[in-house]
Amino acid sequence: MVLAVFAIALLWASPGFSQSRIKDIVDFEGVRDNMLVGYGLVVGLNGTGDGLNSAIFTRESLIGMLQRLGVNADDDALDTNNVAAVMVTATLPPFSRQGARIDVNASALGDASSLLGGTLLVTPLVGADGEIYAVAQGTLAVGGFSAQGAAETVIKGVPTSARIANGAIVEREINFRLEDLQRVKMTLRNPDFTTARRVSRAINAFVGLETTRVLDPGTIEMDIPDAYNGRVVEMITDIEQLRVEPDQIARVVIDEQSGVIVMGENVRINQVAIAQGSLTIRITETPQVSQPLPFSNTGTTETVDRTNIEIDEGGDQRLTVLSTGVSLQEVVNGLNALGIGPRDMITILQAIKFAGALQADIEVM
């Protein structure tokens, strides 16, 4: 596992794969998704909905909906388990126009056991500003199921979460026009001074003018050249295809749960000696039965304990010396020479960092 991860890291570090398109490392101002959320009711469930006595919000929502439809349902005897309250979420893509359709997700809010077979009623979806941007309704598609018997229950997936493809209609557009911009801001997905400067230089070289400036490690601002006046979309199309080499800080990322280790190209280690060994004690119990000879009138059958103890002091482990400024490949070769597994390698890297010999940041996931 670790060798495969290191091999991928070395492949990325090779010159043929060092340059990336600007569109893959930056986000353009205004070109972004917007999160929508709403509260709704799902009906038509086969006895798997909320209990109205325990889910008070479902009861109140159901009564309010029926009253708006002209049905007086404000009765203490109201009891049904075919209705469930859900939270509905969606993502509004950039430049979505009125009448366009988007996908929505519905998740049970109360004690419903499954949304299978349910239908979402009209649900307004609001944005962070409190305005309604879409309305959702439709039949839920559930990827999981549950079955229960007297002595066993089988659950596959998450039956309390569902999706409606093209289940919402956009009712309000976001007032943003690229053509009205006098300047464009680009945000780096991985902020870095060097990468921002390289992006700025690449754009200036392409346009032939000093039109960009680096505001901070994550933001580049560009004035719209006269040649692209009123044609901002064409300008972004040309710019995002330019290639630059992103810089990266020296970092070691460790996932202790899975034992995955990823090292950046710029990781360096000062001269250090590494030894790895362990004491292993293995105790094996093999009871044996002792019994008298056949047809013997004396003696009894007894169980005799037999214990075997093996001790491994790690005497075959070796000491490895890593020279100053070794590369990523030399670090891998040096640690693999000790026959170290993923878990021990994590501990060794953290010890090298603690000793001040690892010139990189360690980030534990």
From TrEMBL:
Gene Ontology annotations of biological process type: bacterial-type flagellum-dependent cell motility
Any one GO CC term of the record: outer membrane-bounded periplasmic space
Stored InterPro entries: Flag_FlgI
Highest taxon, organism lineage: Bacteria
MF GO annotations: structural molecule activity
This protein's UniProt keywords: Bacterial flagellum, Cell projection, Cilium, Flagellum, Periplasm, Signal
UniProt subcellular location: Bacterial flagellum basal body
Keyword Coiled coil: no
Protein family per UniProt: Belongs to the FlgI family.
Job description of the protein: Assembles around the rod to form the L-ring and probably protects the motor/basal body from shearing forces during rotation.
Self-association and partners: The basal body constitutes a major portion of the flagellar organelle and consists of four rings (L,P,S, and M) mounted on a central rod.
Protein name: Flagellar P-ring protein
Organism: Hwanghaeella grinnelliae
Gene: flgI
